[in-house]
Backbone:
């Protein structure tokens, strides 16, 4: 490129050295740093999942010892939950898009934004160190007193890693909230914000209100394990159920940290590929806040068999049903948006359709689990495993990939191969269902989770599941190849390849360093496709 | 507040339109951070409340072993430091360099006095064999749950002390910046938001003191 092309220079051309990336304060580059981080952790977490599925191919526990198996599913859970799912959409897509969508030059606190990535990397390093030293075997839930008194594995290192990592969530959430409040472009009122922004605002509230509680809980576990200060261990006078309350007070809302940003992506995709304004905009916007709020009141449904009082259990059961209302509002409104829309089937939209079906199944089986009696029957079975994978993988990862495809041309200024993208989306959908639908059945039949051996009559379902996981692995590998290939050989992307609304499509692809050549002024409603 | 020259101010970061916007963003950010702090300490307060309600006698016995004079003195010291901090912010708003430096140093000094007294208290606990996990010997109606009280006492007060140490560190930087005349009527955001943090740390103690030292003080000793 010669100097005449200077007006087209963008944030990617803002320095090519490693230092220019590692010391950047540009939210777009920080988003890409996160993209690098979460992808690495996703590969690692998937590796453990693969070992789990291979072990479960046969009823006998023949590949790994039961103790090793405990470490496998624990590391799979820890890495996927804390280092992939929670940061995936907010820290990558949210970081990149939020300031652009509201017409700002950057996040309110660019240095804190960069700090959050370093905190994430340091937390990850502690966790990886624990992994190299033999891993951890408590399950990702760290239930006391096993974690604080008995486990022989590297609990302390992992707990420190997750504690540190929590601050990256807190800092990201804080940045999002302040940015949305204080940095919006002239004319961009709250009800003109894209629903992606509303969803991330709600997510940020959970980051800020929930994460500190898991942090202090892990401090207490650490104090008990390392300093023998009794807090949860009954031998030292403590109460292990208190740990569960504190843990789930964060860790249930954490599920909404994973799904709310996915819902935000979904709203963008549905509107863009139906070429219609989203149906019931305000309901969809407020349902995000409602999910965030109600999400803090339902943690007890993880403890129906933990010895909490029957009245508490009934209250938590009832409150858990309430979450279904805002969730259903979203699904109905997306469906209504499709109605009489001019629907196109580009690859991001295929992910959106996939999300719709998978989230529906994941959400409805959540209602089974909110029902006290049914939950007691399926507690600690593969039914639960299947349910939360439908939400986390079927929901969150589908939309992470859908969003990545949708905004890829904006982020890198390159078009990927659409045919391969379609094949990958379908492969992932089929592979996912083949992996996890049999787990509903085998769980309902009584197969418990967290064991490396099982009765032979469950084998057929496990073979299906492992076959599905193999297909899923192929599906996930495909985007890695064609997306990276697009960076080298892809056609240059136009500014608005999908003909979508939103400020991010009004700037160039990739955007300039300060996002807009001239600061935007907004004077129209969101999703104004009717014009 | 932001005149025509405000946008030229050296402290204005590139992504803000003016100093007002920057100030509002920083203040909101600090308030949000304090919300996260409330939830951070909230987990401990929850544990404390659950156990105090479950084991009132054990907690009453244990709290008798805290030194109310030292605790009370520290409360006064800390409230005093909040006053000097407020004065430092006020001086910054008026752009008075020397007054600002004096009050910042006074705040730090009071913070250090607090930490010193706290250290004395800790060493007493150690001598009295009241440190769970290291040496804990307790005669009372319910020793094991009194031990729980001391576990919480040490986690809560040490975490509070850690926040004080961080605060003193911040104050040191502020003092240097103030000495160099970095804060003016137009720009004193760092002093303002650090003040919020310092007051918050004080308020945590205002809750810790009665919970740990005062409640059930009138009850009989085992």
Residues:
């Amino acid at each position: 490129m010669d100097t005449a092309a200077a007006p087209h220079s963008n944030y990617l051309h803002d320095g090519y050295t490693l230092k220019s990336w590692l010391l950047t304060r540009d939210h777009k580059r920080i988003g890409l740093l996160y993209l690098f981080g979460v992808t690495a952790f996703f590969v690692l977490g998937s590796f453990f999942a693969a070992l789990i599925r291979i072990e479960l191919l046969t009823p006998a526990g023949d590949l790994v010892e039961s103790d090793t198996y405990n470490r496998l599913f624990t590391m799979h859970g820890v890495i996927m939950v804390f280092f992939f799912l929670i940061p995936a959409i907010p820290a990558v897509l949210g970081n990149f898009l939020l300031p652009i969508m509201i017409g700002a030059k950057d996040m309110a606190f660019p240095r804190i934004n960069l700090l959050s990535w370093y905190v994430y990397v340091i937390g990850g390093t502690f966790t990886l160190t624990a992994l190299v030293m033999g891993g951890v075997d408590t399950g990702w839930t760290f239930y006391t007193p096993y974690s604080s008194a008995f486990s022989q594995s590297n609990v302390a290192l992992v707990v420190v890693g997750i504690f540190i990592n929590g601050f990256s969530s807190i800092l990201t959430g804080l940045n999002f909230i302040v940015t949305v409040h204080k940095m919006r472009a002239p004319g961009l009122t709250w009800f003109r914000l894209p629903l992606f922004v509303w969803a991330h605002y709600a997510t940020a509230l959970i980051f800020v209100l929930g994460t500190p509680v898991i942090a202090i809980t892990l401090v207490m576990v650490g104090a008990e394990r390392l300093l023998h200060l009794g807090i949860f261990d009954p031998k030292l006078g403590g109460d292990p159920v208190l740990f569960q309350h504190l843990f789930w007070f964060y860790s249930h809302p954490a599920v909404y940290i994973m799904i709310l940003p996915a819902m935000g992506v979904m709203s963008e995709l549905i509107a863009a590929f139906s070429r219609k304004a989203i149906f019931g905009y305000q309901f969809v916007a407020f349902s995000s806040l409602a999910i965030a709020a109600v999400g803090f009141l339902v943690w007890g449904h993880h403890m129906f068999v933990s010895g909490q009082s029957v009245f508490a259990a009934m209250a938590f059961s009832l409150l858990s049903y309430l979450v279904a209302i805002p969730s259903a509002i979203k699904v109905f409104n997306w469906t209504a948006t499709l109605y009489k829309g001019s629907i196109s089937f580009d690859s991001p939209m295929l992910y959106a359709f996939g999300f719709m079906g998978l989230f529906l199944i994941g959400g409805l089986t959540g209602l089974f689990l909110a029902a006290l009696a049914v939950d007691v029957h399926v507690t600690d079975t593969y039914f639960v495993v299947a349910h939360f994978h439908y939400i986390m993988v079927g929901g969150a990862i589908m939309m992470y990939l859908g969003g990545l495809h949708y905004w890829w041309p904006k982020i890198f200024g390159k078009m990927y191969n659409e045919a391969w993208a379609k094949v990958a989306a379908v492969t992932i959908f089929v592979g996912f269902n083949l992996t996890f639908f049999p787990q509903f059945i085998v769980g309902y039949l009584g197969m418990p989770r967290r064991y490396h051996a099982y009765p032979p009559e469950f084998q057929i379902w496990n073979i299906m599941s492992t076959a599905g996981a193999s297909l899923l692995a192929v599906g996930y590998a495909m985007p890695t190849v064609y997306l990276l290939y697009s960076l080298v050989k892809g056609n240059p992307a136009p500014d608005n390849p999908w003909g979508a609304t939103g400020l991010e499509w009004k700037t160039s692809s990739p955007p300039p360093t300060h996002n807009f050549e001239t600061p935007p002024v907004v004077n129209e409603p969101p999703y104004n496709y009717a014009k | 507040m932001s005149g025509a020259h405000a946008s030229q101010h050296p402290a204005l970061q590139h992504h803000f339109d003016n100093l007002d916007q920057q100030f509002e963003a920083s203040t909101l950010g600090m308030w949000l951070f304090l919300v996260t702090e409330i939830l951070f300490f909230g987990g401990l307060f929850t544990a404390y409340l659950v156990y105090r309600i479950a084991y009132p006698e054990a907690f009453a016995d244990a709290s008798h072993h805290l030194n109310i004079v030292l605790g009370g003195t520290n409360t006064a010291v800390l409230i005093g430091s909040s006053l000097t901090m407020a004065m430092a912010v006020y001086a910054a708003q008026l752009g008075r360099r020397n007054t600002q430096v004096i009050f910042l140093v006074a705040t730090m000094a009071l913070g250090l006095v607090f930490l010193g007294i706290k250290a004395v208290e800790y060493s007493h606990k150690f001598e009295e064999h009241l440190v769970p996990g290291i040496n804990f010997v307790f005669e009372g109606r319910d020793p094991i749950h009194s031990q729980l009280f001391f576990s919480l006492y040490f986690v809560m007060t040490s975490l509070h002390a850690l926040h004080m140490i961080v605060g003193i560190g911040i104050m040191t930087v502020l003092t240097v910046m103030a000495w160099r005349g970095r804060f003016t009527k137009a720009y004193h955001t760092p002093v303002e938001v650090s003040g919020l943090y310092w007051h918050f740390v004080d308020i945590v103690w205002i809750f810790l003191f009665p919970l740990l030292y005062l409640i059930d003080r009138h009850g009989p000793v085992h």
